[in-house]
Amino acid sequence: MKQNYGAYQGFIFEKTAAEFLWKTMPFHFTKLGRWWHKDIEIDLIALNEEQKEIFFFECKWKQLKEETARRILEKLKQKSKYVDWHKDKRKEHYGLIAKQVENKGNLQKEGYMVFDLDDFCQP
To answer: By CB distance 3.0 to 4.6 Å, which of 28, 42, 61, 94 could disulfide with 10?
Structure first.
């Protein structure tokens, strides 16, 4: 149990993050779930099928420095190219949900959807 506890916490956090998105996001989406193809995996993808919008999220049960968060978001952009849903006609959004994100406001100002546990506790 001790050996796999970190992975278990990550799995539970991903489920909690999905629930957070369903309940609190100001955008409308019709589907939400994990996506993978061969060795490429994206933790959460949310679709707004009417508006052809797609939201890509990575979930990390870690405290992240801003630089690390930026690397994760850049890698997410690369992985999103493999998702073949209205590829040329969609509006893409990128996000990160983590235990804690240093300077998340800087990333939010750049258009990223970045959340951490502080956001989970907001009324």
So the answer is: 61
